[in-house]
Amino acid sequence: MTTELVSHDAFRWFLTLITGVVAGAWGIVDLVRLIGLRGADTTDPLVRDKRFGYLIGIVIGVVGVVGSLRFQNVL
């Protein structure tokens, strides 16, 4: 009898799915927010700061999804 609640593979897949879903949602939310700033005044420093932050969020989302897929040898 083992003391493990789930197998090693099931645990890896669970963590991969959680990480991928959170990273994907983060990237999509920031993409929608960035699209919402299309008509904003680009001379406003606050708008430029938001645009930069949303771009960084999209990059984090892509890295999280790609990293999760590579971890499972899908990519």
Task: Write the topology of this structure.
Elements: H1 8-36, H2 45-71
Helix pairs in contact: 1-2
Q: What is the 3D form?
A: rod-shaped
Distance between the termini: 36 Å
What low-confidence regions span 5 or more consecutive residues with pLDDT below 50?
Answer: none
N-to-C series of helices and strands: HH
- The helical percent reads over 70%
Instruction: Specify the biggest β-sheet.
Output: none
Mean pLDDT: 93
Radius of gyration: 18 Å
Q: What class would the helix/strand composition place it in?
A: mainly alpha
Estimate what percentage of residues fall within beta strands. Answer: under 5%
Discrete helix count: 2
Question: How many β-strand stretches?
Answer: 0
What labels describe this entry?
2 helices; mainly alpha; rod-shaped
Describe this structure in words.
Helix content is 75%, strand content 0%. The chain is mostly helical and 75 residues long. It has a domain at 24-71. Helix 1 (8-36) runs antiparallel to helix 2 (45-71). The mean pLDDT is 93.
